[in-house]
Amino acid sequence: MRIRLIDPAYEHPYISHSQKVIKNIWFAHLTLTTLAALTPQDIEVKITDENVEPIDFEEDVDLVGVTGMVMHAPRAYQIAQKFRQKGIPVVMGGPHASSLPLEAKEHVDAVVIGEAENVWEGLIEDFKNGCLKPFYKADSFCSMEKLPFPRLDLLRKDEYMTINCVQTTRGCPHQCDFCHVTHFFGKTYRCRPVDEVIEEVKRLEGDFLVFIDDNITGNRRYANELFTRLKPLKKKWASQASMTLTRDPELLKLAAESGCVSLFIGVESLSSENLKDVNKAFNQVHQFEEAMKAVHDHDIMVVAGLIFGLDHDDEGVFERTLRFCERNRIELPSFFLLTPLPGTPLFQRMESEGRLLHKEWAQYNGATVVFKPKLMTEETLQRGFNWACKEAYSWGSIFKRVFHPQQRFFTRVLSNVAYRRIAQRTPEGYLPSLSRILQRMNDTIPLQNTRDMIHQVGEKIAEKKLLIGQRAADTLKLYSIYNERIKTLFVRLEGSIDREGAKELVKRLKGVLNVEIQKVILDFKDVRAFSSEAIALLSRKGLLQTEEGKLWIAVNPPGIHD
Ligand code: B12
Ligand code: SF4
Question: Which ligand is nearest to the CA of 307?
């Protein structure tokens, strides 16, 4: 019996990778090599990764197995159709088929939902006996002990940057709303015995490998043991870890000592509101700069995952995020457009809110807008994303992020050159015209006169006076968010306002109202102290509308143009 396992390519004008890019940055998934290893030895099994070689549709095989993420689904279905037309049955598994088994079943003979370990052999038996079932789903997650080593020998190793991939854990202790991992693995986080991992690593040729875990430090004790045992092997490795690792100096140090040279870290967003919305509040924005520094101090390269299009992202997000990457010398910024993947809580939410634009899965690629963003139009989001991708890999930005005294300097430059090749193919984007204004409206204005401040206590503002030096902040902070759909700018003020601060605020607002923004809503509730001159000025300009309640809000301040 002969089985052909296929990883479909993704055809796209600028997302699919050339052979050269694959050779520079790509490593093969462990999916099919794992499946091949699970296949009984008397069966001839071969692998085609369509990203590196064409599929031979004329091949005489008995059974075809195809995998695929959501974006690969249409191509996977096409491949299945071609084989089925020749009378060759097709089985499909992987993230997409597991999320939408009924849809997949319309295109293939059998669908494997979830992990294959506990069902693949049984499926083959059924096939041999002519009684293939439509669906296979294991009763429980598989044991992580004694998993066979993936059949890396079946890959065309020279076509990839490396084929040295190892999985040490499955799942993730977190449950971010947009992520498919927890949906797929449930709330489990399972670890392979360290002995077995070490044995697998020892067998790899060369000194570099990738741990394809979703979060290699999800279990501290396990990671500690793994890294300790890796140390003597003197390998270099890359992997993914959540931000929590950056708050664990001891484990981070051990990771570096065990050979970690690069980490993909899901930073996701610079807005705490966004992070809270997607159940990722364990990423703490105020610690980001420190976190990046901690990783760099160990000479570990940061590949930062950053998402655009979350519900609190306005037009300023693109520039703000890129500058963050430059300031923190993030070696490889990896920008994604928010993508509601079927099966995730995000998908359910977007669908119930009627925000999905369509279900053309090939467009669910992380680089195409497939939903209605809250604070921007689809076009602004797409163009801003394109701008950020291109701009991040302009020579200017590469220079800011990479050129500083550091070891492994050349690796950093070479990786950037490879990413630049991909970025250059991105269609033209633009920086939204309001971006600069939004940066100015998200700023800190220092105070000049700290005397004669009136504490804002709610009901009666003039009753309590205090010296600014005692209790009030010596800055005025502006937090602004623009809703393009209703052309309204929301500005939250925090700290204290003296006359100069009030003047600066008025000046900035003038600039704002001269452009397409039609309405400004100011929220003074977090302003702790005002000088009487500031109050006079703000009132004259119609910015302060003191009402019975505790909020001072100005809507379209009438005096602002004077
Ligand atoms: C490594 C990896 C990558 C690498 C790919 C490596 C490379 N080529 O350079 C990189 C970082 C580039 C990458 C990119 C992307 N990835 Co990725 N990636 C992974 C990761 C971490 C591991 C994949 C792997 O090898 N798994 C190990 C194998 C053993 O597990 P498996 O694939 O699930 O297979 C098992 C079962 O599913 C089943 N099975 C699978 N296929 C089949 C087929 C048959 C016939 C059968 C019987 C069974 C079966 O059997 C296997 C054994 O149990 C997974 C997460 C994960 N845990 O799997 C995400 C994951 C697959 N990626 C994901 C995504 C979204 C992407 C991107 C689209 C991100 C983006 N927006 O750009 C891109 C797309 C890139 C592309 N063009 O292909 C999602 C997929 C979600 C979905 N529903 O589509 C995942 C699940 C991560 C997530 N956070 O949600 N990825
Ligand atoms: S931390 Fe990463 S892998 Fe874990 S659920 Fe969140 S996005 Fe997914």
Answer: 1
d(CA 378, CA 389): 17
What proportions of the chain, in percent to the nearest 5, are helix, strand and coil? Answer: 40, 20, 40
Tell me how far the alpha carbon of residue 33 lies from the centroid of ligand 1, in angstroms.
Answer: 13
Report how far ligand 1's centroid is from the alpha carbon of 562 (Å). 59
Ligand 1 neighbourhood includes 27 CB (under 6 angstroms): yes
E-state strands within 235-367: 236-241, 260-268, 301-308, 332-337
pTM metric for this prediction: 0.93
For the stretch 384-424, pLDDT in tens is 999 999 999 999 999 999 977 666 788 899 999 999 999 99
Q: Is 166 exposed, middle or buried (0-12, 13-18, 19+ CB in 10 A)?
A: buried
Tell whether ligand 1 has an atom less than 6 A from the beta carbon of residue 93. yes
CA angle (102 as vertex; 125, 33 as ends), nearest 5: 50
| Portion of the chain with pLDDT greater than 90, in percent | 76
| Predicted local confidence at residue 478, as pLDDT | 95
Query: What are the CB-based long-range contacts (under 8 Å, 24+) for 402-406?
Result: 402/329, 402/331, 404/329, 406/296, 406/299
